[in-house]
Write a structure and sequence with these properties.
This protein is mainly alpha-helical and about 200 residues long. About 45% of the residues lie in helices and about 5% in strands. The protein is built from six helices and two strands, in the order αααββααα. The protein has helices spanning about 10-20, 40-60, 80-95, 115-140, 145-160, 185-190, and strands at about 100-105, 115. A hairpin with an 8-residue loop joins strand 1 (about 100-105) and strand 2. It is globular. The termini are far apart.
Length: about 200
């Protein structure tokens, strides 16, 4: 069985790239549409913040309750709240032994637990994709290091492309077709059901 590599540095880089984008969000931007079906930018930021806090709790051994993952309404300082949550998850992932811990992921189902390496890979691909979502919503560029994107392609390729992607609230839509020699970010997006040309003209 292939061992999932230590993706913590790549995850931190993706998270910090997203934090930098979120810092540019202004109140007038919160109603902007995003590539996440049915979510405006406010809903996406609330999700990002909640996910950071949920994964941080699971890394500490406290994430079994759905309350730890609950999406809360944005406060008066959404960028600051998101940045604080990002620092919490980065710190939690740095803890000794975290790669070999078992993470509770109740959003995947009651009692679901996965190895730390796998849980961090989930968080990583989420923030590569959602960072792009934020950038597209703001009509800003989103550049990540080539090595990070190569790691993200491997993670995206491992995500099952089955009927679970058709369920309401599924994290990813069914895969889209993309050439094998396509640009890495476009390939990642296609593998999780996103079109790199969003919004379509």
């Amino acid at each position: 069985m292939h061992t999932i590599p230590d993706l913590r540095a790549a995850d931190e880089a993706a998270v910090r790239a997203t934090v930098a984008l979120v810092e540019r969000v202004r109140p007038a931007d919160l109603g902007r549409p995003t590539p996440c079906a049915g979510w405006d930018l406010a809903a996406l930021l609330a999700h990002l913040t909640a996910q950071h806090l949920g994964f941080a709790a699971s890394a500490r051994g406290d994430g079994a309750s759905l309350d730890e993952w609950r999406v809360r309404p944005l406060g008066d300082r959404p960028a600051a709240d998101h940045a604080d949550a990002a620092e919490q998850v980065i710190a939690a992932f740095r803890a000794p032994g975290v790669l070999d811990r078992t993470f509770a992921l109740p959003e995947f189902g009651e009692g679901v637990r996965v190895p730390g390496r796998q849980a961090i890979s989930f968080h990583f691909i989420d923030y590569v994709v959602h960072g792009w979502d934020v950038a597209r919503s703001l009509a800003l560029p989103f550049a990540l290091p080539a090595e990070l994107l190569r790691a993200a392609v491997t993670v995206a390729e491992a995500i099952p492309d089955d009927d679970r992607r058709l369920a309401p609230g599924a994290a990813f839509a069914p895969r889209l077709s993309v050439p094998d020699d396509g640009e890495p970010l476009a390939r990642i997006l296609a593998l999780v059901g996103r079109s790199a040309s969003w919004p379509e003209n």
